[in-house]
Design brief:
Helix content is about 60%, strand content about 0%.
Length: about 60
């Protein structure tokens, strides 16, 4: 899987389409991706705790 993200963005129009959605595609290593996801999880967990946010279950009615 390493490098598959870089191959995904290779077609000339792929990078433009990705940027239209506000993203930047770049290749990375599994270690860097794991570190990024861990840091994001810690960051947002702090926000959730600080704001005392809770998940509410919504029941669907048919």
């Amino acid at each position: 899987m390493a490098g598959s993200g870089a191959r995904f963005a290779e077609p000339p129009d792929a990078q433009a389409r990705i940027q239209e959605f506000g993203f930047l595609a770049e290749g990375t290593t599994a270690e860097r991706a794991e570190a990024f996801l861990r840091a994001e999880g810690e960051k947002w967990a702090g926000v959730i705790r600080a704001r005392k946010l809770r998940v509410e279950e919504q029941r669907r009615t048919a």
